[in-house]
Structures
1.
Amino acid sequence: MIQRFVAMLCAVGVVLAAACIDMSAPKGVASISVLQLPSLSVVLGDSMRDSNGVVVPLTVLAFDGAGNPIGDAPAQFFFTDTTTAARLTAQNLLVGDKIGTVHIVGQVGNLQTPAVDVPVTFAPVSIVRTATKTDTALFTFPADSLASLGVSPVATRVLAANDSGSNKIIVRYKIVYAPATRTGAPLPAVFLTDDNGRPASTDTTDATGAVSRKLVVLPTSLADPSLINGSRIDSAIVELSASYKGKLLQNAPLRVIVRIVAK
């Protein structure tokens, strides 16, 4: 099991794939990227912004036959449906007009990207705890089964001023304190993963504004014998942050304390 999680931690890579390739174009634009969005959603009454809160237009990257980028290739953008939830300005800025979803494609020459669904959502105002009114959750693992993994969800919601969820908002997770890892351990004693067990430090809200990452405790990596045998209780502290227009939301960074105890 440990070796499997080591592999998961190591198998992290980023690949930029071409969305469309024109094999008949030896000169000029031969391929293009997928649609480049500054964000996964656009806020009602606002233009789409990047993670720093800066208004950024939609773009498509173009490449020649040798795979070199072409900086001046003009791109066009289209809605594939008749929705009026959002509109495009002459500068290729996406503006949210009403709650809903738009479907957008980008095009350079005769090459077109796959369609991307972009929701128009309420402006995020705060990040709040879910399931409990306190900042503490209890996580236990069996002291007689130290090779096992333990998982505790760390869940929150991002809400608008009307208490509706804000959709497709990035939430960042950070472990600010955790029990020490023993020297030579192949994995940290405490780390965060997504639902598939892959290491993850961010999540994106769903339509209800909810996010959840899993706090994993690996007992075999713990350095403190008294924590392993259950004679002492420790904690992991996770901070969650989200922002809009470059400013942290209310309650951010939100601190969640997870008690760790062997039973």
2.
Amino acid sequence: MKILYTQSEFDAAKSRDKLPLECICCSKTFHRTKHDIKSALNGTIHNTYECCSKRCGIRHHFRFSSHMITCDQCGKPLKKKESDIKKSKHHFCSHSCSAKYSNAHKTKGTRISKLERWLAEQLVILFPSLEFHFNRKDAINGELDIFIPSLKLAFELNGIFHYEPIYGPEKLSSIQTNDHRKMLACAEHSIELCILDVSSVSYFKPTKVQKFLDIISNIINLRLSRDLPVNLPLSS
């Protein structure tokens, strides 16, 4: 508590007279009754009247109970409350860094990425003469799960997060907006985009996801037979 009154003013004041104090957070002058100040000084009430308002009290508490740590993705310094530090093993300066770290260190919820990796392995075997781009952004300045440049053909594997608000309606809206942007970008670049709903895949197993490989292979074969019937072998 930072007082702005003299001892004589305090002694002369009545119990309900208000005396000036200075907020230790914003330095603003505020007033409290002699009775409350005396109780705070004696420790009989929890409110010590160090701050002029609840907002300043929260800011003051955050300032003196927080620590400087570094973002686990980019190394940028950031300040977090001790209670928040204890809640999580990893800490990030932004949602972008959190997403990048999560994608690079997935140990849970990886069934779709396992599906993508398996499809990538199988497609390269089935179509050795085709060039595949997996999870690259160079075609439309946005990530495409599977893109075949020579055929101007792309595939997106949309899991349950594209259809249900698993992380809330705002996140779902953001994902669906991005999906729509991809469709427009592909159209602008004359890329045929095929979207596969893989939300039914609750766990990865080759026999369970073979149907998606069959769908992709059939579409590729159709394009090959129509556009490039001579030089590129079709899938068996």
